[in-house]
Amino acid sequence: MNHSNPRQVQLLDTVRTRGSATVEQLAEELGVTLQTVRRDVQRLADAGLLARFHGGVRVPVSTIENIAHPQRQMLHAEAKARIARAVAAQVPHDCSLILNVGTTAEAIARALLQHRGLRVITNNLHVAHILAGNEACEVIVAGGTVRARDRAVVGEATMDFIRQFKVDIALVGCSGIEQDGTVRDYDLREVKVAQAIIGQGREVWLAADASKFNRPAMVQVAPLAAIDRLFTDAEPPAPFPALLAQAQVRCEIA
Description:
It comes from Pseudacidovorax intermedius. By secondary structure, this protein is of the alpha/beta class. It is about 40% helix and about 25% strand. The chain has helices spanning about 5-20, 25-30, 35-45, 70-75, 75-90, 105-110, 125-130, 155-160, 190-200, 240-245; strands at about 20, 50-55, 55-60, 95-100, 120, 135-140, 145, 150-155, 165-170, 175, 180-185, 200-205, 220-225, 230, 250-254. The longest helix has 14 residues, at about 75-90.
């Protein structure tokens, strides 16, 4: 399965919103036949994006572990591409930035391929590989331990490396934004690096598609007050508009 079509993304969103759903409920909600739903469910289950149980499906949500990298690349790909274009439109030529791990960061790297005079520090080997294709961009890769599943570079050495630089824009992603006003993620080592990145930006930008609102994750990255701008793809649900206003975060909806 190379990509989720819009109906499958809608099906996933429906299941995520409800927590679980029967095939009948999904057919009614999406206005399609049971056969179509069963086929979509089978493909999404094969891709590891849905967990099946007797009579229905649920999203395999865990507060401990994120969905695997190839599955995250497929999930909300169009939303991430829109967010990436919105971010790239705001990144000036001739500036310095840090891009961290995650599939949204990779989409942003692709959107920056036409920029001139960028200096990009990253702990994401996918981002480095993408931006190496832009000869007008200097790419600096952080040292450390490479995590096989998503080519992220993490660890103490990574943090020490990042702390050498002060950049115009520190650009981070996350796995969840919770109702207590915290930005959260799954992996403590990844979070430590993200915190180091946030500390080195004159401005801190968070890129998070709308599925991240109310999504639980175990480790706190930062309070919303540490973020200057949030780029997302849909109006955040309550209570987030009030939380964002209170934290003085400028929200850009792609």
